[in-house]
Amino acid sequence: MTVPHSYPYSERKPKLAVWKFASCDGCQLTLLNCEDELIPLAGQVQIAYFPEATRAVVDGPYDVSLVEGSVTTPDEVERIQRIREISRQVITIGACATSGGIQALRNFGDVAEFRSIVYAHPEYLSTLARATPISAHVSVDFELRGCPINKRQLLEVLAAAIQGRKPRIPSYSVCVECKRRGTVCVAVANGTPCLGPVTQAGCGALCPAFARGCYGCFGPQDSPNTSSLADRLLSLGMRQGDILRIYRTFNAASEPFRRESERHEPGRQSAVSS
Amino acid sequence: MSHKLTDGGQVMHVGTLSRVEGEGAMHIEYSGGEVTKVQLRIYEPPRFYEAFLRGRAWTEPPDITARICGICPVAYQTSSCGAIEDACGVTVPEEIGLMRRLLYCGEWIESHALHIFLLHAPDFLGYEGAIEMAADHPAVVERGLRLKKAGNDLMDLVGGRSVHPINVRIGGFYRMPTIAQLRGIRPVLEDAREEAVETVRLVAGFDFPDMEQPYEYLSLRPEVGYPIESGSVVTTAGKAFPVQDFTKHIQEQQVEWSNALHATLDGESPYVVGPLARYTLNFDRLSPIAQDIAREVGLGTTCRNPFRSIIVRAVELVYACDEAIAIIDRWRDGIVPSVPVPPRAGEGFGASEAPRGVLFHRYVIDDEGIIKDAQIVPPTSQNQPSIEADLRTMVKDWFEADAALDDHSLSHRCEQTIRNYDPCISCATHFLDLTVKRS
């Protein structure tokens, strides 16, 4: 759902807030990594809440809330509701907030067992059985992909939010970016297993440019044919377990990748190889 | 916020700790002239990396564990590569080690510039944050951003990107940068080295509270050079052991008030890892330009005042730029980017110096390379007891000097004391709100 906005702002600077849930801080850091743009940006928006960068807190409501991280504790379930209530636009930044992130690997395991592997006193912890994206809890105005997000895409999303327009973020595959960049296809030329055909563009097709197959950190593209690619990966020498693992990383809980990884679980391969 | 208790004591609670990486809170109790309780409460939610690494392939830890921390992913990639290669009985050629060191220099430059200028300097200059500081000290903030960008540019070149680099693999890299590319970034690093020297002069002029840490310091020490991507373990108490023995010496314990585990060294805590420990144990290994600037500002060959860690960090910034240039000058084209690391059943250990201190990894893999057990000991969980001990000392001093010290000032000073450690809370959870109880 998109909230109608009375942008562009003419009377005052829009108020920006940056919130953190379960995450590595890398997507927030991407904002601080805009070294050439940070000071001009601070001139155009009021950085009202951004604890990683400043102690100063300006009370809400906020015009734009950037949300990093996935929901993994009972407190976070309540906190995201309050953030939605005081934000005109909620924009998720990164794979954790958009699809659950790497910590959603718990969704495929037993959290009670996970707790006892890492912690001697699991009873001290407060944690949920599943890591979920922000959209599982509240309406989200835009989801920016990537583990981590791309700096130029973040600036485009912020500019669009300030100007009250739709961000220009393509949903096509990494293959398109490789072609544009003039990178020779690593799968065709070298037989390197690559998730490029099923993965959304945005990184600039980095991995193939470094002679490496894409590992899917921007999540599924618009219409991914994950099973057809799985067959191709098998023919390139990957094993069922490898295919399960390659679809089950930083966007493991996104629907197309989750379904495909489950098809390669032990005991289910016969359905796949037909 | 604070409130008086019926027993006359007082509790102080500081809400979300700012300008640290991750989420935490702080609880302090003060009664009868003594600090009776200091607890860092890390409420950063647990993410269970060590659990879901089980069943993954031996090739995956560099990409997976990088996601523990967006600020020091190269530390995770380097320590995990070291541990897996150790398990598989592979030693990488010297040139691959050098390229890891070059990428790591980029992370040190980026992380140290971020912490010195954007996170820590505002404490000393009296601002809420760098953006507020930029209004009065634009040249300082701009210098910080230029240095940070130099580090990020180096990481982009060697690693593909600065947050979660894509070019690192078990056995080396996917592709080596060319000498032409490396020479292209050399002028940026030369400028950065000059600006880093100026940074040491700037931060050495700040006011520092008097405090001397009596704790044991622990760092890596390689055969040659200042510790970054490898080395064996040394301490100020004269202990020395190989990384393979770290679980014999370092144990982690869970405390009720925190989602981060607390580490002890041979049953003792606190001990300290990070810039102060590295500098105090390895001053002789700094390059001449880094040693000279440290002497010029009167730092000495050891440093035990945690508030002066910002100067040590700046000296390390000089070193990282200098070392990156030295590696580039020695580089030649035609180095094989990686060596094969076939799996074999076994246990392996790896350690490297993250910007905030030594990071240990241990893996057990089977003969097909499937991970059976994983253990990660991040720097902040090692430093957590010493952060609490520093707070205990400082809060007592502050109250003795001014019994009416208000909560706002106290909270500010406590946060600065915590920031001395450049704590990475995302890493340690497996950080801060302040509560103080006083009478």
Would you write up a description of this structure?
The complex is a heterodimer of chains A (274) and B (439). Chain A is α/β, with parallel strands linked by helices. Chain A has two domains: 15-163, NADH:ubiquinone oxidoreductase-like, 20kDa subunit (Rossmann fold), CATH 3.40.50; 174-273, no CATH class. In chain A, 37% of the residues lie in helices and 10% in strands. Chain A has a five-stranded parallel beta sheet with strand order 2-1-3-4-5, sandwiched between helices. Chain A is globular, with a radius of gyration of 20 Å. The model of chain A is unreliable at 1-8 and 270-274 (pLDDT under 50). With 439 residues, chain B is an alpha+beta fold. Chain B has two domains: 2-46 and 402-437, no CATH class; 49-210 and 306-381, Cytochrome-c3 Hydrogenase, chain B. In chain B, α3 runs antiparallel to α4 (94-125). At the A-B interface, α1, α2, α5, α9 and α11 of A face α1, α4, α5 and α6 of B.
